[in-house]
Amino acid sequence: MPVQIRRPDRRECERCGRIEEWSDEADAWRLADGPGDVYCIHEWDINGTFLPIEGTDE
Questions:
Q1: Which residue in 10, 18, 44, 46 has the most C-beta neighbors within 10 A?
Q2: Which domain holds residue 39?
Q3: Does 2 map to a domain?
């Protein structure tokens, strides 16, 4: 089985709780909920539990 790289379809700011979802139509991130703190320098959880690689041969 070939290795597939996938991207997240949802992300949450660790500082203010802003949640965004990926929109294929807009090819961009869109708000899923309230804006959070609009003055926040958003910190997305890039070292979390999301695994971008799937389907490895072992």
A1: 18
A2: 9-50
A3: no
Q: According to the model, what pLDDT value does residue 51 have? A: 72
Report the 3 state secondary structure along the chain: CCCEECCCCEEEECCCCCEEEEECCCCEEEECCCCCCCCCCCCECCCCCCCCEECCCC
Residue with tokens 């690689």: 53
pLDDT, tens digit, 9 for 90 and up, residues 31-57: 998 888 889 998 887 776 777 777 655
Q: Does residue 4 lie in a domain region?
A: no
Report the half-sphere exposure of 50 (CA within 13 A, side-chain side).
13
Q: How many folded domains does the chain comprise?
A: 1
CB-count burial class (<10 Å; 0-12, 13-18, 19+) for 13: middle
